[in-house]
Amino acid sequence: MDDREGGVFHEPDAAERLVLLMSPGRDRELLAEWFESATDYAVEPVSDANDLPPEYDVCLLDDRTFGAYRGAIVEHACEADPVYLPHLLLTTRDDEGVWNADGVDDVVSLPVGRDELHRRVENHLRTRRASLRLAEREQRLRLFRRAIEAAAQGITIADANADDAPVIYANDAFSRITGYDTDEVVGRNCRFLQGRNTDEATVETLRDAIERGDPVSVEILNYRKDGTPFWNHLDIVPIHDDAGRITHYLGFQQDVTQRKRHELRLSVLNRVLRHNFRNKMTVIRGYAERIETGEATREDAERIRRAADELLQIGTQMYEFDTLVSDEKAEGESFDLVEVAESEVETLREHAVRADVVTDLPERAPVAGHPSLRAALRGFFSLFEDTAEVDLDVTVRERDGDVRLTVTDRGTTLSRHGIEIVAHDAETPLDHLDRLELWLLRWAVEQSSGEFDVETADEHPSVTLHLNVAE
């Protein structure tokens, strides 16, 4: 392909500069007059290397100037590297030392015809033009590489023609986002970022677009090297060759975890607040009207008090939510998960009429998390305090730096539908939870770089929290 057609190189508008570094005299004058009349070169005669222009395209020398200024000529050629800067020696000498001299790219034996001299000069200029094109291409490639490396987005290139489309390049931002070094990424398909809660429908969307050769943009749950989940805004663009065949896939990755979490949290809060405030205020107004008409009973007052207490509870949870969001980057704290679990189980046994709680706990399980995590755990266990009969299995396991708290409800407090709403972001205006405890627990776990998981396929639904071991 012609580089000029691709926009890589443009011929300069200015004429190429030919310097005659020769002794003053009739020979130099005749050469200058002929080149000026017969070519498009900008001809500049000089007698001293100190008078050489900072930039020129070809230089003709005679024996005297070459002998006197060889060092300066070699220096000019080195400074121009990797661009070719030709120097031609016009001489009557024919010894081997002339042909092997440093600083000389060609030796023109005198006498020489004008057409031959022009042809020799033009041949060297063609080589120079090619070297300029290559140098400009290399410069642009270096610029592109620096720009890619400086980008805040992760950028990958995958080979579409190799088995399983492996990554052949990943920039520094990709390593920062995922935690994987470049040598751990190259040679692998990027699906290694997927994990247990990656949405299969989103994966299918990616797969279908790639099979069709279409660009695709999705937001997908991926996992860093340390197991931390993050939301990845992923764009994949196919790259075609001149024949229209896909040769590579260009991928852009952006961590949008905080935005996704904020959007979900605000949406959930909006629905819970609207639903609860509307319902509770309807209750309060209804029984207040009975008081006004003199029809109220003690039970009516109790119902008003309960509705007000529930609104106060929502207000408290709103404060906890505000603390969670405003202190997103708060320094984490460590605590013993077993100690918290034992304390909450003991509270349940004290409050419930019948509490059948089976625990399987190690001696200790120190975890690290956001300051809101401990309070969120207490809020979660408080869901069971309103139940007359508590039937729970509480298990804590530690493996490979991951502490797992699993709570299985053998009663009726945790509904399959309810925990799936929280686990899979399935809240809608018509299908949502009335309380925030499960949501606050999930958000506190995620803010602690952990993961909230549920199991509804078994006879009894369960919630599992994956937390990080405290160092």
From TrEMBL:
Using the record's annotation, list all stretches that form the PAS domain: 140-213
UniProt keywords (A-Z) are: Chromophore, Flavoprotein, FMN
- Signal sequence interval, chain numbering: none
- InterPro entries for this protein: CheY-like_superfamily, PAC, PAS, PAS-assoc_C, PAS-like_dom_sf
Q: Which PROSITE patterns match?
A: PAC, PAS
What is this protein identified as? Answer: PAS domain S-box-containing protein
**Which source organism does the UniProt entry give?**
Halarchaeum rubridurum
Domain of life, per the record? Archaea
Ranges for the PAC domain?
216-268
